[in-house]
Amino acid sequence: MSKIGKKKATRKGPRKKTARSLGLFALFVFVGVTLAAGFYFMALFPGKPLGIDLPQLSEQAKKKPLQQVSEPQPAPLYEEPALPHQAPPVVTRNTISEKKSLTGKPLVAIVIDDMGNRQNTGRALIALDLPLSFSFLPSTPFSDELQKAAQAKGRDILLHLPLEPMDPKWNPGPGTLTTSMDQETMRTIFHDDLQSVPTVMGINNHMGSRFTADPQAMRTLLPLVRARNLFFLDSVTSSQSVAYDLAREMGIKTERRTVFLDNDQNPDKIQAQLDLLIKLAGEHGQAVGIGHPYPATVEALRRYQPRLRDHVKMVGVSRLVH
Questions:
Q1: Which residues have CB under 8 Å from 195's CB, separation 6+?
Q2: What gap in Å lies between CA 320 and CA 111, rounded to an integer?
Q3: Domain range for residue 281?
């Protein structure tokens, strides 16, 4: 290699190092400036990403709670009402206030459903010094005995008519009427159900969340009720029930359940429901509670007898239908 070539080679090395150093320096300066600018804008506009316009929530939206998802509850011993513990009673007539003015107290009826299967609790409820009303299922083992005991005490007796529920897993038992039945089949089964409760004064539905929400089915059943001069108490097992309105439209005496007493079979909880029953009776002149022949219901009613006597006038449910 010549001397000139060696000189060029010698001079080229330092120039490359200088250019590389300048490039790295420029990169560090660019990064530093970018970071500084970012921190600057973050300080000026905290909580807002650069270049993004976030939607502004209204005050109402900020306060709205997230939807809560609860664990599925175990199946109850009877069909749960679709409504909460009470259905708002419809009070559109003057007879309620007139009845209330006679005693100075609101009127309350308590109907005990599902009678006929439980002998001991059935007897205990009939023995209470309260004018309870009793609704008997058809074809139950202790029905005849308990009906005679209730009749001897002058209690109102109903047929607890099994009607088709919304969920097919529920079995209302023998004598069930369904929405798919033709008129003649329904008439025959209804007649047989009535034969098992010979002193019947009225009807209320056992289950029936599908049936009572079906206008066509109810228009087939209710004339059978009217033909026997019976009343129809809507247990309100469906928020879509048309039973009460159709019965009134057809001129059938009717009323609706106000409070379920013993969805929770705890005497203290049942007493809380009785408090609610009294409260609603005071607001509307009358109210109907529905309970069942459970030991807890017997115990709660025993404890609660004095309060019922002090605050309301207890009557058979036939006094409250119109």
A1: none
A2: 12
A3: 95-319
